[in-house]
Every structure is written in structure tokens, then in C-alpha cells.
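Re: export button greyed out
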Amino acid sequence: MNIAILFGGSSYEHEISIVSAITMKKVLKKSTLTYIFVSADREFYLVETEKINSKLFSSGEYKKGKQLTLKKGGFFTEGMFGSKRVEFDVTLNLIHGRDGEDGKIASLMEFFSVPFISPRMEASALSYNKLYTKFLAESLGVKTVSYEHLSKNDERKIEMDYPVIIKPVRLGSSIGVSIVKEASELDYALDVAFEFDTDVIIEPFIDGVKEYNQAGCLTDAWELSIVEEPQKEEFLDFEKKYMDFSRDSQVLSADISDELKEKIQQSFKKIYDPLFRGSIIRCDFFVVDDEVLLNEINPIPGSMANYLFPDFEGMVTRLSRALPKEKNISVDYTYIHSIQSAKGKA
Amino acid sequence: MNIAILFGGSSYEHEISIVSAITMKKVLKKSTLTYIFVSADREFYLVETEKINSKLFSSGEYKKGKQLTLKKGGFFTEGMFGSKRVEFDVTLNLIHGRDGEDGKIASLMEFFSVPFISPRMEASALSYNKLYTKFLAESLGVKTVSYEHLSKNDERKIEMDYPVIIKPVRLGSSIGVSIVKEASELDYALDVAFEFDTDVIIEPFIDGVKEYNQAGCLTDAWELSIVEEPQKEEFLDFEKKYMDFSRDSQVLSADISDELKEKIQQSFKKIYDPLFRGSIIRCDFFVVDDEVLLNEINPIPGSMANYLFPDFEGMVTRLSRALPKEKNISVDYTYIHSIQSAKGKA
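Workaround output, generated via the alternate export path:
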């Protein structure tokens, strides 16, 4: 199969997306990979698979590659003798953060009828925003960590006991996130968060909380990853967190009871189906007093969480054959015809 | 000002969008209009303003016009001597239903840096889905009509007393909507609704409920329309409802107290700001026992609700100068450089 890897984007996680994309070479070995780079100013470039490395981008050398135009049916090179479609079977959206996770890439792919692996637009809009993720989870009967919500112009007052964790609602990867240990630190942490977003959520910071990650997708059947207990630090800063994005070797399953595993998987399935069909996502859960709480949805997880799956490449292939179809709407101009004939009679 | 009217789309409301678009000629008289038609199969065509009429589309004659390509900075004609940008100052998104209201057009315009009047992607995703609209309103402290939610595979059981109204969550314009007077009619009404959508909401049907529409936008100040009490029928079917889309003459303000008007306007503002900045929307409210309840948000109202505003054209001009700016994200490859220098040392 020929998989087009879409990466880069106008995002704080642009560089991380490059790391994720390069990692795919190591884990999608049987497939042909077609690399399509979205530059920081949102031009599309075809990048030769053999040449790909991080320096190609930081040096700006990628600009020597072919520039592409997105049109109905795919990406095209434009030349003297007309335009030529870049051949591939499916795109894999690997753009983390803005553009990739907020629904723009999903919209583009759907509008131009390009088959794609990614959360669809609506799933993206809800999971990109941590406040809307709360609404979604609640409506599906999945519990989340308790929270408060503040907008930029709200009075800076919270009800919750300290320590708390402050998160901009729309960004991934710990950007703008702070742990606030006492009231005197609140103002500064909010200043930082509001640098990045108009809205924040505030959650209790639960020291030593048990955290488990579950990734997966629905092909012709459920394909769930192992449950991972991620390595613990107080919280991961941008750089540490993103060494993760080059991961390509399998990790061990968390040592948990079958009952807990079952609870985590049930919660994952509730979130995933049907909204996230067509995508591979990772959900991060907390377990507090034996209760499974959704912490966050990673709609485009680092390196697609490949290291959690026994057969990542096979799964990508199966998923590409099980993508949701857009409903066909036929436009037959009945209504306009009927107005015209009514006018004709008048 | 030169306003590009974007209309058509792959939508059940494709034809209605054509009617809305033609109406703009009658209400945007001082502006230059550039008509860009999105065909049912999502190709872009430039349509000459003098030639525009409904038959041009139903006959397929629009295909003789210039086809356009959407690229960074705008829509382009492609010819022997390279591509040429279609000149305009701003696009006005007039695509009702799918593509226009679900966030796809907003995504396209934002991605390709084309200035546009329309709800942005996140606002679109939330207001296109009546269930998510409930979540949104609740989080903003705006009350809505009570409801139940059913997915396609759920048991077909409701708690509410009859009569009820069944609405597919994602469609506008009364498509798939039924009033159900007793339990024996429920199954058929759900069959109809599930033809169009995977999810429905069920609300009490309140006979003779007072309904009021408020449209508006935020330019350098609030520009709120008069409050309209729409003419009443049991409920409007597709055709009747859409005679509305060709409206171009002012209507009278509803005869309500200043206090009620103030409540309606406060609710409108809570919904609108900041999520809907850059758009002209209409909110439809019910008043039950003196309480103002949001019934629905019309993110792209028929003919832009022009007939509710004293100076529609002036408002469009002012709004085009007050569009929200996307946050600029600069990518400097610091992270990749630091990995490279770390590797170099190893």
C-alpha cells in the first residue's frame, strides 16, 4: 500500500510532527511512503522518502522539492503539460496541534475527496478543545476529572483546593500548562496560559495519580493496543514529552487487573465509536479510587502510538479499508424547477 | 468593497443557497459582488454577476464559466500564462447546511488565508450539531429547551410526555424533523430522522410557544437586529421555510417589553462572543413562562437575515474590517536544531 504521510503544519508542534513523520519510516516498512510536507506557511511540498531527515526542514532545503496543489481527488504537481496527480492510496494525518488536530486537515481531505486516516472534523473540533472534550465525555457516560473553566476576561477566582493544574483548552503537548501549588502562584500561571488561549480549564493536581494510556481503532473489528502505564515525572515538559515522538519499539503492558483493563477499554470504546471512526487515537485515563476518568483524548498521538500495537502496519492497512464514507447528497434542482414552473404559470 | 459570495455546496440546502445568493444582489447594491459557485460535486466556478439566475444552475450552464482553484491567498483561474487571482476583499459564506455550516468552508478559508465572513471552524462544528449546541449553551449559562438524545442503535424509548418534536442533530431547515403526537407514531418518525443522521434529539413540542429571532454580529461594537416574531405555522416544511431565503424587505419588530428584549439580547451576546466573531448569525429563542430558551443557532441564516437589519450592507462592510485574526505561530526549528547539536556531540 502507498501511504501519504501528511506532516508539518502551522502549529506549535510543527517540529514534533516532523519527528513523528520520520519515525513512520521505521514502523511502516512494507508500505510505500509518500511524504507530503505542509510548511509553516501552509504550502504543500513533496519530499523524497530517501532524503527525509530533520535537517531538510530546518535548513529550508525542502523548498527545492516539488510544490503541490490540493484539488479534487488529491495533490497535484503543476507543470508545462498540465497537472499530474501524486499517486497514493490513503493519507495518514500526522500533523499534531493546529491544522492537524483542530479539524482543518480533516475538512480539506473530506472536501477534496481524498481518503484519509484521522479524526473527522467534528471529532477534531471536540477533542482539540479540552472543555468540549468534557462535554463529550459527559454525554457518553464517561467520567472525567472535575474541573473549572475560566475565560480571559473572567474574574480570576477558583473554588478548587490547591494544588491545581492549569491548561489552555486548545493546545496539546503541555504548552502553557502549569501546576499551581498555592493561590499566590495562580495569577502568573493564568498569564502564561492566556498567552496561548482565550480559555483555560483548571483541574485538581492529583499527586501520584495512576495514569494509563489506551490507543486503538475500529477496522472490521476493534483493534485495541496494550494498556500502557506511562513513565512518571511531575509533569512532562515540551522537550521531554517529545522525545516520545520518535518511539518505535514496543513497550510492556501495564500490570493491572483484568477488571481495570476491561473498564479502561469500555471507556475507550464509548469515546471512539462512532465519532472517531477512521482514526487511530490514544486516550489517557486516570484511575482514582478505582474509578476510570478520562484525562484527555490525543486525536493524533505522537508517532501514532505505534509502539503500543503488536501489528501497527497491518492495522493501518486494515483501517484504510474501513474508512467512514461521507453521505452522498444528490442535488437534482427539483425545488428550483418548481419555483420556475410556478413563476411561468403566474 | 468587492464581496465574493460563496454559495452552493454538497448540501441538502444547495438550492436554497442559490436563492440566498441571488437575494444578495438586491441587498448589497453599493458593493461589487463576485459570485463563486461551489457545485454539488465541489468544483469552484466563477459566475458572472449579470448572468446569475436560478436556471443557470439547474441547467448546468454554469459549467461554461471559469473553473477556479483554491490556493494560498484566494481563488485562481489557471491558464496558459500561469494562474491569476480572482480579486475581492472578503468572502461571504452563504452555503447553508453541509460544507458551509459544518466547518469545512471555514477550514478552507482559514487554511488558505482567505478573509471570510462566517462562523469559524469550532463555532461551526458546535452549532451544526443540535446536541453540541445544547452543551455549548449550558456552559455559557444560556438555557435551552429540555431534551433527550437517541443514537441510531439505542433502544427506542423516551421519558418525555407527548407531543414531542424529533430532530436529526446535524441538519438544518426542518429536514427529517417530525412532530410526534403519540407513542404509536414514534417509530416512524425515528425511521425518517435516522435516514438523515446517526443521532436525534427529542424535545417537548410546545403548542403555541412564543418564538423570537435575534440576529447580529460584533464589529467595533454590537450590531443587533430588531427582534422578529416569525409568522407561525404548526411547523414549517422545507418549501415554505425556504420562501424565506429570498426575503429582502424589512419586517416589523416584535411587540415585546423592553425587559424581554433585553433578556433575548443578553442571551444572544453570550452565545456569540467570542466563539462566533467574524460571522452574522441568527439565534431563535422560545419564551416559556417568561424564561428565554435558546431553540437553535442559525450559523448561516437564510439570506443572512438581511431583512432584520436597518443597514445590512454597511454592517457587512464594517464586519469585514473586524474579522478575527488567526494567531501567528512562528516555527524556528529550535527543537530540531537542539536535537541535531546533541547528536553531534554524542
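Chain A has three domains: 2-118, 125-143+207-320, 148-204. The button fix ships in the next patch.
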